[in-house]
Structure prediction request, 120 residues.
Amino acid sequence: MPISPRVVVYWRPGCPFCSSLRRGLRRSGVEFTERNIWEDQKATAFVRSVAHGNETVPTVTVAGRATVNPSARQVLAGASEHAPQTDSEPRRGLLGAVPAALSRLSEQTRARAHQLAGGR
Prediction:
């Protein structure tokens, strides 16, 4: 059975970008661990180490690879790219959800753009 990569979201309270990313990942069915950088000194140190000394959030690791301020689409793509699988087994778990989740995000983006354009 394929192993889904571990997804860790480093965030802080009040960050609208963090809220948006976490909401998008939940909608897409992605399981992830959350680390509040204001409550976890190791998490703060990690974020600073990958964000040039800054506490830029959200910062996300997928299978140990860090990305600063990614979109939900980028996290899903990273999970798909870095998750091991075998050709003889069907895609399950996070990997099985990636194509559908990307499609949902695209539909949501188009719907929001249509809404912002005044429904034209």
The chain is about 50% helix and 15% strand.
